[in-house]
Amino acid sequence: MNRRPLLWFAVCFVAGCASGAKLSGAGAVLAAGGVAVAALALVLSGRLTRKLAAVCVVGFVLAAGERMWADARNVTGLLDVLRAAEAQGSDAAIAAQASGTIASVVEIDGDRASFELAVDAASVAGFGSLRQLGGERMLVQLRLEEQLQQEVAAAWRRGDVVGVKGQLAQPAGPANRGGFDYRRYLSSQKIHWLLQATGTGAIDVAPGPPWTAAALLGRVDTVRAWLAARLSNMYPGMQAGYMQGLVLGITDDLDPSLMQQFARLGLTHILAISGLHVAVFLYALGLILRLCRMTRERLLLTLVFAVPFYVLLSGASPSVVRAGVMGMLGLLAARMHKLKDGLHILAAAAVIMLALNPFYLENVSFQLSFIVTLGLILGVPPVRRAMPHWKRGETLLDLIAVSVVAQAVSFPVSIYYFNQFHLLSLPANLLLVPFISFIIMPLGGAALFIHIAWPTGGKLLAWASVYANDWTFWLVDWLARADLFRTIWATPPLWWIAAWYGALALLFRSLPVSELSAAREQGPDSEHSNLAGGHENGELETQPLYELSAIHRKGGITVPSKSSDGFAGFSYASAAKALLFLRSFFSAVLIMLALLLFAYHPDLFDRDGRVHVLDIGQGDAIYVRTPEGKHLLIDGGGTVSFRKAGEEWRARKDPFEVGKKVIAPLLMKRGVQQIDLLVVSHLDSDHIRGLKAVMDSIPVKGLLWNGSVKHSPDAEELLAYAVRHEIPMYRAEAGQEWEMGKNTSLNVLWPPAVNQTEGSSISNMEIKELEEQNEASVVLYLTMKNYTFLLTGDIGFETEERLLALMDENPAFYAACCAKVDVLKVAHHGSRYSTAANWLERWQPLSAAISAGATNSYGHPHGDVLGRLKAAGTEVRRTDQDGEIEYRAVSGRLQARTMNKGN
After folding, report:
1. How far is CA 309 from CA 444, 567, 753, in A?
2. Which pTM value belongs to this model?
3. Of 675, 690, 666, nearest to 626 (Cα)?
């Protein structure tokens, strides 16, 4: 440990920052005490010097204190306004005016423009005089009224001084358990308010001072936009946005479907400017400078000054900042002939970035960038030494080693945040990463550079990569469509992630060294010792980062190791040591297999039944998990939009879609690997628009619907999708009973039967056309562990009366399945013309769940319905106030909890 003081200081610094972020003040003090005790124990054991122990403890305390201090300062200057808004509810909006400086790129998407505003002063209606806010950031969201206003907003620049008249609103918090927390996300960027305005007339713009940081960054934005326009001029269609992302890190014009395919295959890191891009940039620039016969010292110094320029030009995301800091440190060390290994450089970069901005710790890009880089530094050498030595295949083996380690290291973070892993991700990375990184990206950069001086030459060079891009898109599409290889994982607990990395570290340390590899490596006095066997004093040896060393040398990864005796085709220091490492190897493999099994089936032994009424705004989506582990989804919500002819310009490139943004991610986070039965209560858009995205993300084994069609794009697309993907479709008819397991059954109460059997093929059905769908909603009676739920779609008084009459006509059937209910899903979002008094009298529900949007324009739920429920003695929960509603059937009791109010 004493050989790596900077590394252990960085470990303690990061741990301190995490403690300050996640623990209370008392908890952070206890954590610091624990670190001090551990450091003292290491000092007494002789593994740590007193000086290093003191430095590590101080680093932990400083990082924890800095983070807690940053959190204490990360509050709005309008605390009284915030309290008033919280008292009014999540949809509160308060009239306000603010003046300040545009502090980000102005983003325009359809009829929306947005930018960050560093607010100098603001006045809020009803809260006294002008407030000085000293640069507090707000997110301005502007709704454009006409197409010409897009051009007006596009002329605004970072650094401009503006005044905005609008309404203050809080960012939305999570409405469902595990859902995206927009409020927390903006808070990590020190933004606490949305300032919403309509029309460019609500904003007064004037040029700001020319030499402020914001104005200088505004010039960088202008250069980036100018370069992006050059790429758009050279590349056709969706290739323009793709090349902008690849070369400049601009993803605004990247096709959403292409981005989704790259994400499925774990290839989005190609589009995120990171260490590989920095390395290629420095390598290319280094070659040019060498051609100019520049001395080594001047070349390295030039590269150091070039890095910040490239970081700014590529967007300054955390991953590229990390790579830039590491690149500059490595180049400076090389210039001073003190090039340290990658661990020291990585440690220094982590400390610098967190010291400058402790909120980087929660950034996914920051986490992935550092974790993967650390994994490559520690994991590639032992993996490479365990592989055979092929003279003509060194580069291929190097690539395989890097790809395997990167996949293993990034896997826990990927499933924690994205809940999916494609089994073809490894071959996709092996094929496409070198091809894109070393051919397409340099071609794009060179074409852009040449196009500036010689447009025709730039286009000719770009033409060479157009066909290669077409091939890339075809291959990505073909691989992404292989749904058999796509796996879905529930979000694992943090202890699981720690256990995975512990087992992975044990695996790396216990990997054998192939005899061929050992035979070609140096003897006992080699500078680098065998990581598989460990250093004599237990220290890990690493080598310089490949992305830095690539500037100075060519060829494969060279990792010398101690010579040793052969054992079963591999090399170890002794037979006893070989046995010890083999035990460690198989222990690590078994631990990782057990962890994989747990992560893939975390609820394997969970026998509780659950019904979740999801908060998706104005619409319905109900997720059911049975005690037997079956998954049902009833409806999939959808945002209903009304657009007039000539308003196509309002459409966004990637509009908010509740299935894609809310339902599918939630189900995947909860480990839903397939939907055993998808129930479509009826074909109105507010119940089905989100279902296509769900079916794209999660396999569906069967679809139950009301047996009708409706002439609407959403309905036609849904049914066509089911037929095209050969999803079994069943018409719902009163009298059907679906056995979903030993403790779960589903009875269809409505619509009435039309003499078709449950399993009738859609090709044999008589499909009726029905434009008014509400009264044809599928009504279900769910029994789970002797608890009952009545799910009613959007039926109204008419169907309630007809169903009650039908129940009177067929008492034998309905008496057998349909007694009183424990939970009623109130029909039609609580419409005034549903949930009649006699309906409630028949079912006598103990609890009622209402799914309605917080800002819906229909007045749902209506006061009359709430009054009838109150008169019936029914407890009411509603998504517009309570968020997600969950009912859990456990042995002997039915539990209920909501997102906002708990149990």
Report:
1. 18, 52, 71
2. 0.88
3. 675
How much is the average pLDDT of 61-82?
94
User: Is the domain of 337 the same as that of 237?
Assistant: yes
* Number of structural domains the chain divides into: 5
Give the mean pLDDT of 25-45: 93
| HEC letters along 748-777 | EEECCCCCCCCCCCHHHCCCEECCCCHHHC
Report residue 407 as tokens: 């996949």
Q: Tell me how far apart the alpha carbons of residues 389 and 556 are, in angstroms, rounded to a whole number.
A: 11
For residue 357, is it within any domain?
Answer: yes
Say if residue 528 is in the same domain as residue 455. no
DSSP 773-834: -GGG--EEEEEETTEEEEE-TT--HHHHHHHHHHHHH-HHHHHHH----SEEE-GGGG-TTS
Same domain, 630 and 553: no
Are 559 and 628 members of one domain? no
Contact 85, 91 (CB under 8 A): no
Rounded Cα distance, 139 and 185, in Å:
12
Residue 226, number of CB atoms within 10 A of its CB: 10
Q: Is 404 helix (H, G, I), strand (E, B) or coil?
A: helix
> What is the DSSP annotation of 833-897?
TSS-HHHHHHH--SEEEE---TT-SS-PSPHHHHHHHHHTT-EEEEHHHH-SEEEEEETTEEEEE
Residues 808-815: contacts with CB within 8 Å, 24+ apart?
813/735, 814/749
Amino acid at 401: A
How large is the C-alpha radius of gyration of the chain?
Answer: 31
542-566 pLDDT, tens digit per residue, is: 444 444 344 344 333 333 343 344 4
Residue length of the chain: 903
Condensed to tens digits (0 to 9), the pLDDT of residues 802-861 reads: 999 988 888 777 766 788 899 999 999 999 999 999 999 999 999 999 999 988 888 999
Residue that terminates a domain, selected from 180, 208, 236: 208
Establish if 783 belongs to a structural domain: yes
Domain endpoint, select from 181, 208, 235: 208
Q: What are phi and psi of 806, to 5 degrees?
A: -65, -35
586 and 667 together in one domain: no
Cα–Cα separations (whole angstroms), residue 690 to 293, 367, 389, 620, 857: 61, 31, 52, 10, 20
Structure tokens that stand for 281 in this block: 């940039």
- If you average pLDDT over residues 402-407, what whole number do you get? 94
Region 762-767: mean pLDDT is 61
695 and 835 within one domain = yes
Task: Tell me the mean pLDDT in the region 870-894.
Answer: 94
Q: What are the beta bridge partners of residue 849? A: 825, 877
Using CB atoms within 10 A of its CB, is residue 183 exposed (0-12), middle (13-18) or buried (19+)?
middle
**pLDDT tens-place string over residues 781-792:** 999 999 999 999
44 and 105 co-located in one domain: no
Q: What CATH number should be reported for the domain holding residue 135?
A: 2.40.50.140
Q: Is residue 589 a part of any domain in this protein? A: yes
CA–CA gap between residue 32 and residue 20 (Å, rounded): 10
Assess if residue 729 is contained within a domain.
yes
Residues 763 and 872 in one domain: yes
> Which CATH number does the domain housing residue 888 bear?
3.60.15.10
β-partners of residue 94 are 168
52: domain range? 5-73
Tokens of 82: 């915030």
pLDDT at position 138 over 70: yes
DSSP E strand boundaries for 171-231: 191-198, 203-206
Residue pair 704/680 in contact (Cβ under 8 Å)? The answer is yes
pLDDT, residue 759, reads 43
- Residue 770 — φ and ψ, nearest 5°? -145, 110
- CB of 572 closer than 8 Å to CB of 513: yes
Q: At 107, is the secondary structure helix, strand, or coil?
A: strand
Q: In sequence order, which ranges of 292-393 are alpha helices (DSSP H)?
A: 296-313, 318-335, 342-356, 364-385
